[in-house]
Fold this protein.
Amino acid sequence: MTETEAYIQLIYMVGIVLCLPYLLFRLAPALAKIVAARFFPPKFIDVEIVEGDRTIKKRISLEDDDELVSALLNVKRGRM
């Protein structure tokens, strides 16, 4: 191995070591979110309306289109 090849390998190793924090702390959580969204899609939506001192909470299935549309329209109007 020549001196030039040794320096090139050293540069490669330093580059890899400098990229590891990015891969571990930025890329891994982003990939985990994508995988979780792909294999475990949401099935419900929680709607919460706050009127003064009372709070109305309702869980709506995403498969029931009519109930979902009516609940979202009622949220916009401020009632449920």
